[in-house]
Amino acid sequence: MRCPICSVFEQNVGPTIDKDVKDGKFKVSYHIGAFLDRNMGGTGAKNALSAVGAALNVSPEAFAEYNKALYAKENHPEETKDDFAKGRLPAEDRPAGPGPQGQQGLREERQGRHLRQVGPGVCPTRSTRTRTSPAHPTIKLDGKKLTAEGSENPPMTGEQFTSAVNARLK
After folding, report:
1. Pairing between strand 127-131 and 30-32?
2. Distance, CA of 66 to CA of 145 (rounded, Å)
3. pTM for the full predicted model
4. Of 77, 114, 125, 158, which has the fewest Cβ atoms less than 10 A away?
5. Backbone angles phi and psi of 83, in degrees to 5
6. Tens digit of pLDDT for each residue in 94-142?
7. CATH number for the domain that contains residue 151
8. Taking every annotated instance into account, which residue ranges of this chain make up the domain Thioredoxin-like fold (predicted)?
């Protein structure tokens, strides 16, 4: 949740994935890690993960909106800063956050009572998006790593993502 490259991925490719899911092109599953807390110290990634877990307790839509809010350029911290530590999450009560009905769940999540991983929806039939790689997000399509054309790196633009998905689905 503290990964800057994951934030850029979500900002640039997230809208394309959202559209493809809405259009029924594939389903998506998130597997979110908090490894930067372990690697750099702190609790911000776990705290942010708990907050999106509380949002998921409200609805899959609330999860998606709050996940976007956490990765938004204006909200996402530098990976070396523990800005998502307790009490420092962005606007939990705004429409993109868990909302008033999710506040108790959010408090419980922060106390570590619930999720370590978040997985909205069904296990995918076509695509899995994973954020557990230490270097960058790992995106899998039908269980195989999806990369930008001519690269070992994930697609980092909507166009690269669409091209990679279409090439794989041929």
Report:
1. parallel
2. 26
3. 0.76
4. 125
5. -65, -15
6. 444 554 444 554 555 444 433 333 332 222 222 334 444 445 688 999 8
7. 3.40.30
8. 2-110
